[in-house]
Write a structure and sequence with these properties.
Elements lengths: L22 H16 L17 E5 L7 E6 L9 H21 L3
Antiparallel strand pairs: 1-2
Length: 106
């Protein structure tokens, strides 16, 4: 597969370890998987159960990716922002703040 110039790989081309999902993450997820599969685990973000068969992620702190919080809903639900939606919201807020700071001299 061809690379697009020099420099860091695009985010989707980095290894799982490079993205912060290495051995420790996989081992913790394997420990949680049987409990989540039975429906015995609540999402750390909203406190509601993750239903058997429902997509989930092993969530980390929004402020420190090295701190694991526990299983969380992968996608938005009526009561939970979901891991990926929460990350998008956080990223959008950070970008908006940067843009305001960058353009404040106009």
């Amino acid at each position: 597969m061809a690379r697009w110039g020099k420099g860091p790989r695009p985010a989707d081309q980095r290894s799982t370890t490079q993205r912060g999902y290495g051995h420790t993450h996989r081992a913790l997820r394997e420990q949680w998987a049987p409990k989540v599969a039975r429906g015995d685990v609540a999402c750390w973000r909203c406190g509601r159960a993750i239903a058997p068969g429902q997509a989930w992620d092993l969530g980390h702190s929004d402020h420190d990716r090295s701190v694991y919080m526990g299983p969380e809903h992968r996608h938005r639900t009526p009561w939970c922002p979901g891991n990926r939606a929460a990350a998008a919201i956080k990223g959008n807020r950070a970008r908006a703040k940067r843009d305001v700071q960058r353009n404040s001299g106009w």
